[in-house]
Amino acid sequence: MGMRMRKLLVLATAGCGLWAAVAVAQAQSAEAAPPDRVARLAVIDGSASLLPAGSQNWGNASINRPLGTGDKLWIPEGSRASLELGGTEIRLDGGSGFGFLHLGNQTAQAQLTSGTLNLNVRHLYSGQDYEIDTPTLAFVARQRGQYRIDIAPGGKGTQVTVFSGAATVYGQGGAERHVSAGNSYRFLDSSLTQVEVFAVPAPDSFDRWCFARDARYQRNYSNSREYVSSEVIGYQDLAGYGSWQNEINYGPMWFPTAVPMGWAPYRYGHVGVDRAGGAGPGSITRRGASRRSTTGAGPMSAIAGAGCPGRWRCARFTHRRWWLS
Q1: CA nearest 132: which of 95, 86, 183, 91?
Q2: pLDDT band with cut points at 50, 70 and 90 for residue 162
Q3: What values do phi and psi take at 207, rounded to 5?
Q4: What are 88's strand-pairing partners?
Q5: Which parts pass through the membrane (predicted)?
Q6: Hey, which bits of 12-152 come out as E strands?
Q7: H helices present in the chain, as ranges
Q8: CA–CA distance, 53 with 274 (Å, rounded to integer)
């Protein structure tokens, strides 16, 4: 073999090695990158316990806590909680065991091991999936709508109620059944062969609590929809703490009003670092938490204004998470 051929082989081998190294690096980078969305623990009515992904120790859950793949919640009897995931809300009644099996940019797959869950899917974009797995079946929302899932004692059955929208339920052996609005389905086995169908029951206290959350969302979203996307985590809380105004040199801005004299961003609460090596921008005075985008987070600039020593404008700032203590 001539010198020229040996050189060509060396160059080809080196090129293949470099290509492989780049491919591996890109794959590792893609695996390491956190998803663009995260759930926010928006409401705790009573108490809630959290088991973070990778941990073996349960602890108290706190408002604004970001939740992602592997995180688990326990809501004791007499308590309730609500999670925000963009424009979607997941509400949990007392006695509910819940966890995220996978939370990515397109797929939200959760597990309900006990208790009752209300799922309000306000937007369902192309390619998105919302799946709730129970001990006996898998529920997948097919349309935007509101759904309720109840686990029978001992996990021996699942009741699916469709207030609005449409969904598909999957069972063992490839079993599949479509469920439609205005009906409630009680599946008594995992093969979906034993099922009772009846009209949506009269609302109970948990339903009324969820409907009140819906009414609050509509009020707050109507005040903010021209300024903030419904997919921004935590923006609903802004309505209770301030108002939107036009700053001549900047444009539409949110100004805090319901704050004490001397208040300043990041003065109250604490910053935490998430397990992905960074933290999502969080918020001030009980607003939003996310790895990528949320309200009231980021570098601040003072603007002279009445009612407080200084008003502040906010720009997005990644790798920070803020909780109210």
Answers
A1: 91
A2: very high
A3: -60, -45
A4: 85
A5: none
A6: 39-45, 49-51, 59-60, 66-67, 72-75, 80-85, 88-92, 96-103, 107-114, 116-121, 129-133, 138-141, 145-151
A7: 3-32, 205-224
A8: 11
